[in-house]
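2024-03-11 09:14:02 DEBUG pipeline.ingest accepted 1 chain
2024-03-11 09:14:02 DEBUG pipeline.ingest length=275
2024-03-11 09:14:03 DEBUG pipeline.predict start
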Amino acid sequence: MATYAIGDVQGCYDPLRRLLDLLRFEPARDQLCFAGDLVNRGPQSLQTLRFVHGLGAAASSVLGNHDLHLLAVANGGRKGRRDTLEQVLTAPDRDELLDWLCRQPLLHEPAVGGVALLHAGLPPQWNLVQARCYAREAEAVLRSPDCPELLRGMYGDEPDCWDDRLNGIPRLRFIINCYTRLRYCDAQGIIDFKPKGTPGTQPPGLLPWFAVPGRRSGGNLLAFGHWSTLGQVYWPQHQVYGLDTGAIWGGRLTALRLEDRALASVDSPAFSDID
């Protein structure tokens, strides 16, 4: 039995199947934990979503920004210029797939490996206990009748720093932005969502979220996706694995076996520009 954390698929279904063949994945025996962004930008979002959903208890995914965007569009939100979501939105099993997606967590802690999985990042003010609590807070709203209101209000870059006094949509927006969009912030935890490049290319004063001195989640092993330009998978000094290795833009699709932290990956053709 093996448990695999897999980086951003983004509708790259064929590379996913090749990766699972390489891993000799057996759903009756193994577990898949996806790092979010199952859909969008790639050509096979529907096939990907159907496949992962169809694995039942053998697969789960944390929510990524593209997954939440799909849910927002399905609830009347504006489509993006480069979206490739139409097949999902018009599928006869759309409601079943979207209901499953909406019930996926923002933070997942598999039973093996001692790794916490999320899509993007954690602000330096949160320890893992707080992160778990705030994830459950936002997930509860996403699974409630208030979900459409949250999906309409989740877009935007403010607030840009955590404050316990935040409430309502601004509080939930900050939580969701950390889990699904965070890359860089300053030493005080003020987030800048604009830079997306490799560490070392960011403006002065900004740090990768995982490299902030004194980060309160620093004693925990974390795995995440989202950052396709990160430049390396394992950052031992920070105890993090960045699993998005750019499958969507001609990089690789990567899996981390949690039991022994072995890495495996397959090449992927370019489907989109870096984002």
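2024-03-11 09:14:41 DEBUG pipeline.report The mean pLDDT is 96.
2024-03-11 09:14:41 DEBUG pipeline.predict end
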